Prior knowledge:
Radius of gyration of chain B: 23 Å
Shape of chain A: globular
Number of strands of chain B: 1
Largest interface: A-B, 94 and 88 residues
CATH architecture of chain A: 3-Layer(bba) Sandwich
Distance between the termini of chain B: 33 Å
Strand content of chain B: under 5%
Number of domains of chain A: 1
Largest sheet of chain B: none
CATH superfamily of chain A: FAD/NAD(P)-binding domain
Radius of gyration of chain A: 23 Å
Structural class of chain B: mainly alpha
Largest sheet of chain A: 8 strands, mixed
Structural class of chain A: alpha/beta
CATH topology of chain A: FAD/NAD(P)-binding domain
Oligomer: heterodimer
Distance between the termini of chain A: 39 Å
Amino acid sequence: xxxxxxxxxxxxxxxxxxxxxxxxxxxxxxxxxxxxxxxxxxxxxxxxxxxxxxxxxxxxxxxxxxxxxxxxxxxxxxxxxxxxxxxxxxxxxxxxxxxxxxxxxxxxxxxxxxxxxxxxxxxxxxxxxxxxxxxxxxxxxxxxxxxxxxxxxxxxxxxxxxxxxxxxxxxxxxxxxxxxxxxxxxxxxxxxxxxxxxxxxxxxxxxxxxxxxxxxxxxxxxxxxxxxxxxxxxxxxxxxxxxxxxxxxxxxxxxxxxxxxxxxxxxxxxxxxxxxxxxxxxxxxxxxxxxxxxxxxxxxxxxxxxxxxxxxxxxxxxxxxxxxxxxxxxxxxxxxxxxxxxxxxxxxxxxxxxxxxxxxxxxxxxxxxxxxxxxxxxxxxxxxxxxxxxxxxxxxxxxxxxxxxxxxxxxxxxxxxxxxxxxxxxxxxxxxxxxxxxxxxxxxxxxxxxxxxxxxxxxxxxxxxxxxxxxxxxxxxxxxxxxxxxxxxxxxxxxxxxxxxxxxxxxxxxxxxxxxxxxxxxxxxxxxxxxxxxxxxxxxxxxxxxxxxxxxxxxxxxxxxxxxxxxxxxxxxxxxxxxxxxxxxxxx
Amino acid sequence: xxxxxxxxxxxxxxxxxxxxxxxxxxxxxxxxxxxxxxxxxxxxxxxxxxxxxxxxxxxxxxxxxxxxxxxxxxxxxxxxxxxxxxxxxxxxxxxxxxxxxxxxxxxxxxxxxxxxxxxxxxxxxxxxxxxxxxxxxxxxxxxxxxxxxxxxxxxxxxxxxxxxxxxxxxxxxxxxxxxxxxxxxxxxxxxxxxxxxxxxxxxxxxxxxxxxxxxxxxxxxxxxxxxxxxxxxxxxxxxxxxxxxxxxxxx
Lengths: 588, 251
């Protein structure tokens, strides 16, 4: 029997970055807000304890902080001709779990997308003609870079991002990224103290005429007190960022930037270890009544609310929409329907350079401590003479020296025995790695829907991912891999070994937890799920917030844009929606 | 990793009986909690440290299996001037405890059927968990060697014979009984042995931080700010583990 609980003004599904931002903003507005979180409560002193958090086996290999496939798995296939099978263990990407979400165990690369990203179809058509991106399902996002700017700024100051602006009010700044679009002011903190490998990488890149700059980082270069009055610490470069919680209060997360204020508010409640099963609609199908969830006693509850904010991981947002029967599911054969449309990923490639005479001390590292070259990213370079659109950042960000996973050896080395040992002992400290992080553009055949065969512990269908790297993106990645080889040659090591991106997305080796799209924002309800304020087109008291709203993915990490979109939604709710609750903010 | 952290479960169970009354009427032992504004949630003994694995006895392996794994560990990571071997480092102890727990029984993975043959891009699709893979795999190795190596077990072969067998297993040249995929088995074993050798010693392998000393990894240190600008200079301090530093015991 479903237990019916007292009504709330707002129910938020998931308390990660976006849920915490929305909860803070809307409780400031005086609303009574409840967040329902599938995973446990987690906090720095107890769960990311300085005495034992540096445990690669537990957190890096067994992934103690992540969503376990037993709780929710997903199925995958590369194209429509294949039968999707469950990823029995997550590999290629690792969704978060618990309070703080994936924001607990991210590396901290904090980027803005380009102005041209938000109007990508218009921009590329104007510059090259629409034939240039034939076969790609590119769409404008419905916002402009100028409109995004103040919200990016808000997120960067909330999180204490450490970096150097490259373009303030149209003026190029020495030492920053000369290709970035105009911003109102510099980052709140200066860049981190640069380590050895990125410094060498930057020298080599400069020799080739490129423009390296310090990667903007959510690992803090200095102590900081954010606009909410929460104090954060200076990063100590321990090299346990991605897959780990920060024990030092020096990586921005909901825990270190919002929760100390939010959790004290009388008009905020958090329920943990409680999984939302669906969003319930009223008889008209146009308004959400609330959500149904189950806690760990398997008891089912109905939580009525005036507004529902879907703030789970992007892929979970899409699945919950599909499970709730909200919106028209996307059909890859006709290209019609919106929910599940424009699923994108990240097109990455790698490079190792082996030296004889260098000691990089790879363990002296931080998740986002490094240098980036954006000369071949986005539309920063003219694509007139190349046969693709998009690009990639080239990042030398040696995030760690954790030895179970980080043991480079030159190609041809045996995988075990005396020769393997000798090569490992030599190469561990003397190998430089860098990589390209490329854009991922939508196609008609890449999409998300519900799996017809496999289900979760409640009998609900799993999400099915149908994805392969589009030819356009592979051409792009090859082009940038050539540039990475140029840098390798300029570095002058003993040998180098590049790993190029190939057709056939493989769900096993880790690549990136940058899954985007499926509930995208846009200007047309036929081809998007939410409007420019992240409000659902079909159910106007429902907002769907996260990377699920990206109409494509850029050659940039998504968190900065996710944070900015959360602030856009919060601002729209506070300044527009609440004046006339239940009304669409954009007429379809 | 609940096998390492029995305390956590009992703690959460205990908490549930007190904290859960907030969700009025919820019955039975539950982990779900409600936090209503007022203070940051905090409870005594909420931290969840790992427990030191102690050598001695086998929790999963039979004596024969353990002998085989120790011998394999010593060929994959042979003792030499760079470090002790995989056997002395405790790789088999590490693996034994892992197989006796949530790694061995795949309790955190998705294990619902149907089990269908998949494409390489879809990852492991077998129904066997690691405990079953090791039990069947080590038995199949025994059977193969008995039939082809004059009745000898792996541990009784010469180092050269052992290396030759492992090389063939890695290359997929050995046909094992019971439909055991030798190449896949080799990869599972290699992964486990390396984990044991390079993981924190708290898990039973990497004795005295042997692997960390070999490569120069300082372990569970957390502040390198004084060395970040010392380009190309060897970090001067020895490694430390979660469980202890060797010099603590020397007092």
